[in-house]
Design a protein that fits this description.
The protein is an all-alpha fold and about 140 residues long. The protein contains eight helices and no strands. The protein has helices at about 25-30, 35-50, 55-60, 65-80, 90-95, 100-115, 120-130, 135-140. The structure holds protoporphyrin IX containing FE. Protoporphyrin IX containing FE (HEM) binds near residues 67 and 71. GO terms for molecular function: heme binding; metal ion binding; oxygen binding.
Length: about 140
């Protein structure tokens, strides 16, 4: 898989897996409160990740402010907001971390409880989660 690094796609090509922007998600971006809503959401999401014993080991020594800022841009792009994601692609960002299914699922639950706290409508939550779920292929590298 590492045999032909030159053939790799651009750095952020699968951050939001090469799918085109989906204009149908613009109303969902508004339901998240736009970019300020995403910034507020990410604060609680990261607090949950650090409080959760399953995810804490991954985040306690990480640059959490940086990750939050990248997540805001990434989710904003996924929801067709006026943002650009300049962070790493998901495979590169999580390489060597040995993220397993349990950790991935725990992170999703921590995101769900943050979205509930921010009163994001359930349907809007699921629109975002549907875009995040396939990313497990790039992120989960361990059974
Ligand atoms: C759909 C699920 C996930 C998404 C969308 C996501 C997204 C991101 C993004 C955007 C970054 C920043 C990349 C950059 O710095 O350029 C990042 C970094 C990171 N993620 Fe995830 N992630 C997910 C799942 C996970 C899981 C399950 C874990 C571990 C339990 C995890 C742990 C980390 C850590 C520790 C970093 C920081 C890496 C570093 O310091 O370079 N992520 N993630």
């Amino acid at each position: 898989q590492d045999a032909m690094p030159a053939a790799r796609p651009a750095a952020n090509a699968d951050a939001y897996p090469s799918a085109p922007r989906d204009p149908a998600l613009k109303p969902v971006f508004e339901q998240f409160g736009g970019k300020p809503g995403l910034v507020a959401l990410m604060n609680d999401f990261m607090d949950n990740l650090v409080a959760d014993p399953v995810t804490r080991p991954y985040f306690e020594n990480a640059d959490r402010d940086h990750i939050k800022a990248e997540l805001v841009d990434q989710f904003c792009v996924i929801l067709d907001g006026p943002c650009t994601y300049t962070g790493k692609d998901m495979a590169s960002a999580h390489r060597g971390m040995d993220v397993n299914r349990a950790a991935f699922n725990a992170l999703v639950q921590d995101l769900q409880s943050a979205m509930n706290k921010h009163d994001i409508p359930f349907r809007a939550q699921n629109k975002l989660l549907a875009k995040l779920a396939p990313m497990h292929r790039q992120i989960v590298t361990k059974l």
